[in-house]
Structure formats: structure tokens, C-alpha cells
Amino acid sequence: MTVTAAGYPTVTPVPFDPEVQIVLDAIALNPQPALTRETLPREGTDAMFPDNDTVIAGRAIDWEDRVIPGPAGAPGVEITIFRPRGSSDRSRPAYLNIHGGGQIVGHRSWETGRVVDIVAEHGVVAVNVEYRLAPEHPSPAGLEDCYAALLWLHAHAAELGVDRDRIIVGGGSAGGCLAAGVALLARDRQGPVLAGQLLLCPMLDNTNTTVSSLQYDGIGTWQREANLLAWSCLLGDELAFSPEASGYAAPTHAVDVSNLAPAFIEVGEAEMFRDEDTQYALRIWATGGRAELHVWGGGAHGFDMYMPEAEISRAALAARASWLRRIWGA
Amino acid sequence: MTTSETAIGSFTPVPYDPELVDGLAAFLDLVEIIPLRADTILANRAHFATIIPPIAAQAEGRAVTFQDRVIPGPAGAPDVEITIVRPATASPDPAPAVLSIHGGGMVLSTRFFGTPELIDLAERHGVVGVAVEYRLAPEHPGPAQAEDCYAALVWMVAHAAELGIDPERILASGQSAGGGLSAAVALLARDRNGPRLAGQLLGCPMLDDRNETVSTRQYDGIGAWDRNNNDTAWTAIAGADRFTDRVSPYTAPARATDLSALPPAYIEVGAAETFRDEAVDYASRIWATGGQAELHVWAGGYHGFHGFSPDAVVSVAANAARESWLRRVLHLDG
User: Which site among B294, B313, B331 would you substitute to test the A interface, given the most A Cβ atoms closer than 10 Å to its Cβ?
Assistant: First the structure.
């Protein structure tokens, strides 16, 4: 069960799926030093994963890097655009991807695989956004970058061959948090009307008080310690774990979750975000809002990325693709 | 979440998936043509008898055999009728098995409401199924229903060799009332040190007599198995004990104070139905103990949507997700 020797969960965790456990055991053979505020990787993170052409691997998908205007008074924002080659005579749905990494690590290129697969399967245009990370840029800098990317995508829909009524914003982990934040901002600023928000194992609650946040203390992927660090970097010491934090930063604190874009919320049963994600779905439904919730048996945080061949990963990807088809009609 | 005293009428329901709207209308016209009230239970039973095809018709042209049996009921109670559904070609190896518990609010319907699922499972996966005819309320208040179902489970395990089943791979499964009773059977098996179930498949399960969640308020007078039908059924089942701690957890599993050490659960429900919140709550309480519960809440789904609107995109996905779980818990091939 235990993946690192350091952890002592005080609450019995839900066990990992057997196929997930095998991968966790393999990861544990090569333990990585814990993330600290001082050692957050920055240099070279854009080259840790295969480049776009390697990921595309001959599929008929074109890509292009651009720098678009950032939020008022802030630097420009780097994006990568992926689109199906040819047949630009019709407008396509669009996917705005926001990468994970606790909002303290990562680079959009880490998720090129996920983005390209969506483009290939659904024939949509995708924009993968590079947002500023904490602690150098605390909340809401990263969120505002993502929102700026949505505004740009919406404003340039015609140029991009995008149907502006079929834009889905999404991401995993921190990307799910930011996607939920973008959906809240778009509603509250009367911005673009989103077709959906794809929230994959989203990081939503800074208080770290749920049962699941205690069950995965020292075990699994994205453990409690990393999450505490992430929220500290993002919100500063005073608000780090406070229920007073902004609902745009920590969407579980959004007072009003009505009239949001339809949500797809997916999470593993064996991870710390399970309960906050389930709660978010419950609150949306209570307003009469649309949300689909999947809690996959024995899934660790990001199981579809860590163990893509596992039965639950394949099943989760199929359910996800079904929801995207229902929203996009593609 | 809110309390039962919150103003009624202020609850906006989650909308249906547009692709399910016609199916819901057809469901209401066929299945729920008579609103379920205390004085229409018998009329609803008579109606159900006209819409459930006999097992011979269900099995016609399918690669299955079926057999009715009478097995011992719970201590001091009448015998229990069951129907065994087997693949036409028996495997030499012990087969996975499913105890099928039908829906109908514990006041309606027969075991043949659930046999189509057993026929599918027998054909696709070589599953041996047992459909159990449990006593209905109000003539037989809870937990008579769960006791009958549990008796069937005990019989299956005792007759595993004769049935050609693997006693380590038995699932309790049902929709609606059958989902609630599958949960109850899992509780009974744990509490009596009975058979070790491989899993409990809780389809849009009916778990809580209190009828006080947000979703029970959102589907008040609309949708399939709305708040009022549910209210009628629970009063029939629990009688004067309803709304009190005297309701047995084997009648209303949400009443169980301990949800630890249960077999892995699969809990699926539509986002647009009465049972949504109690299903999510049951999963959450299982997780809090370290127990396993895979949860799927399908966008815009009405009560029983995937069975009645099987071709909708959301239903296809729901059926695929359930298949995946069956492969994992029953160790099925492919």
C-alpha cells in the first residue's frame, strides 16, 4: 500500500487498483526528492517531454506557437495551437487546455500528448496555454493568463476556424482548478459563453480538510505535502489554507456555482482530491446546473497519465470522450 | 446540502440530456402511467404484469437456458422462487455469478424485470444468474425483501458446485429498489459473516427512507420515479417506523452507521433524478472508511435512463463503464 516510507496516513485510504499499484510500486523504486519552495524546477522544463512533432507522430495535425496579449499590465502569454490539417472550410469546436503541476511546476508541453489526442479524436482546434506559476506569480496571475487565452481564442474564432459557441476549457489537477476558475470568471465578467468545463482530478479546495486529503498523506501520486506547498505558494502564508481564499483561486469557496458551463468532473477514488471534487459536483447539481461526475475505482491522482494502459484508464478515457462528443457534437 | 424543512419549490432541477427527453416520455407513458400512491399500488402491480415479457419470450433466440426453482426462504418465512439463467453452453470452469434483484420500489414488479440483464450477462460473459422473487411491501414490510434476497445468496453459495459457479465471484446487482436491496444484501453478508461477495452493483439505488436530499426535492412531480412515487413506496415499506432510527439498515442502507468492510461497490445514477444525492452520499461514506465504491453520475440522466434509452450517447458510455467494472471485479476475459 504505502508508496513512500515517509507517509503515515491517519485515515485508512481506499486501496489502489491492482494495475495502478504496480505502477506506483515501480515509481517508488526511484524516489524523487520532495518538492520544496526553493527547488521548484524551472529551467529546462519545456524540454522534458517529447516535442510536438514527435507527439503528433505523423497524424494530420498542424501546430504553431504564438504569443498573445496577456491580462492588462501583464506580459504576453505563450500558446501552442493545434489543428487538424486542411478542410478549413468549416468551423470546428475548440479546446483550451490548461496544464497541471499544482500551479507551481510544469509546462504546457507536458500535456501535448493529451491535447493532440483530443484534436485527433474529435477534430477540434486546441490551444495549450502557458500561464505564470507561483510563488513567483501568486494567484490570480496564472488564472488571469488562462482567462486572457480564452478571450483571445473567442475573439479570434473566425481566424482559427473555431465555432465560438463550442469552446470547452479543461485541464488536469491544477489545470482543472484553473479551468473551473476560468468558467467562474467567464460567467461573472459576462465573458465568452463556454460550452463546457473539463475538470480532470481538479485541485479545488485549499483547506485540505476533507477525508480524502487525509487518506493520501504520504501515499500515491500528488500527496498531501505537495498540495500544501502548492496552496502556500499560490495564496501566500496568510490565506494558504483559509476558507477566506478567493473562490476564483479555490473554486470550492465560490459562493455561487449556478449558471456555469456544463462540467465534467473526473477523479480517482484513491486520491486526495476525491472528496472536494465530489462536493463541487454536488453543489453544481444543487443549483440545477449540469455536471457529470466519475470517481474511478482505485485510481491514483492522474492515473490516466501515469498508467494509460490500465483498464480504468481506458474506461475513463472512453467516458471522457463520450462527454466531449455530447457537448461538441463531434 | 439542505434539510428537509427547506422551502419546497425553490429547487431548480438539473436538465435532462436532450437525447434522453423522448426516452423519458416513453418511459413515463409505458411504466409510470399510473402515479404510485398508497391506493394505486395494486393497480400498478397489475399494470407491471402486462409490460414485463415472460422469461420464455425474453430468452427466445438467445444463447441461454432458464429454470425456475423454489428454495428455502429466511427462517420462519415462506420459500422463495428463483429463476436461474445459464449460458446455453456451460463452461468447464466455475462461472462468475450474479444475484439479480429487481426494481419496482419494493412494492411492485417481479424478478422478470431483471432477467434481461442476466440474459445479456450469460451470453456475453458466461455468467450464471439467479433472479430472486422477494416479498413485496406493504404486505411484507422491510426488511423482508432483503432477507429473501439474502436467502437466495446463501443458497447460491451452498449450491455453487451444482450451479457451476465460482463462489468467490458472486455479485449482487440491481436497479432502483434492486440497487438498494443489493446494498442491503452486502450489509447482511458482512454482519452475519455470510458469503463474501465479489461486488455490489448498485444501479440508481433506492437507499434512504427520509426522501430529504436536494435531488429528491428537484424531482418532485417531474421525471421517472419522482419524489412522490418514492414517498409512497417508503411509507409502504417502513410504515410507522419511517423517518425514525427504527428503520433497519437492511431496509434503508443509508441508515447503516458502519459502511466499512463491504465488498467493492459500483454506484451509478443519473444527474437528473431523485436518487442522485443519496447515491453520492453512500459512495462518500464508503470511501471515508477506506472502502471501494466506483461512482458514476451521468449528465442529464433520468432514473433508469441507460436501460430505457440504450442508444443515447450517454447510455452507451454508461453501459461501457459498467462493463469495465464487471471485467475488473469478476475477472472476465476481454
Answer: B294
